[in-house]
Amino acid sequence: MSVIVNGDTHPLPEPPTLAALLRSLSPSVPFVVARNDEVIPSGGYDACHIDPGDRIDIVHPAAGG
Amino acid sequence: MEGGQHEDWLTVYGQRFSSRLLLGTARYDSPALLADAIRVADPAMLTVSLRRQVSGSKDSGQAFWSLLRETRRPILPNTAGCLTAPEAVNTACLARELFETNLIKLEVIGDDINLQPDPFGLVEAAVELVKRGFHVLPYCTEDWVLCRRLMDAGCEVLMPWAAPIGTGQGPRNPRALRELRERAPQIPLIVDAGIGLPSHACQVMEWGFDGVLLNTAVSRALDPIRMASAFGSAVKAGRNAFLAGPMIVQDMAVPSTPEIGRPFRSASPQSP
Prior knowledge:
The complex is a heterodimer. By secondary structure, chain A is mainly β.
């Protein structure tokens, strides 16, 4: 069972929460996360249950015009 | 400052700025060049974007974020690259969470070739974002009906293009831009995209536009720091000229030196 993280397949973590996924990925800060296009506030990672096939986007600041 | 300039603010959703230049942060050869360009241009805001973190990279965006914070400039996140209203709305929500601002430069692109705004998607996204409490600055064309729809949607600032993004062509449709200025005298209008030279920036400011947003014209100059300085001066010069009230263009020559008392006065020159 897996989730899609930034377009790539990633094993579903145990427990299946966003917090567990982020612990395994340790993205550099600052970042913000969306699950299936919905923004998850930083205080909500533990409570955010993720299911197989969910799309997780982890984004960071980038140069822009 | 003379002439009451200290009271001449650019107002964006209630925030006042002494600078009328907004600067993009992309396409600089190095972070140091970007930092120096910001210091020299003294922009009101910096535009930034959001991108996915690259797997395996431990410094994704961290250095850039540190640089932004050190400048202490307000951030204007964009929705660059979004092709639909839902994409733009989702991106704006991510930006608000990350940058802790309601400001959003709304881009919904409708054409891959000239990166022209999609007017239908733009209005759809603006309506939804205003409903969600965003302060929307839409990147739009100079089309009057589109601009009116965006104002109806609740946009308090508009950002019409001068020309397609990154072209540096300068104002392609001066007449329509000036008509937009005349028909929407109260709303802040910031010319965004297509500016290539300081003279372009100066010209739109002389026409009464409230500000200029540019990126590539500075970042891809041979000497970005010098160009940043040139744009800073040009925007100020154009604004001062607008406030000063330019003379009315005459059809016929009018001598600037008084005729009365001119020595050796003879008969008037004959017409050819």
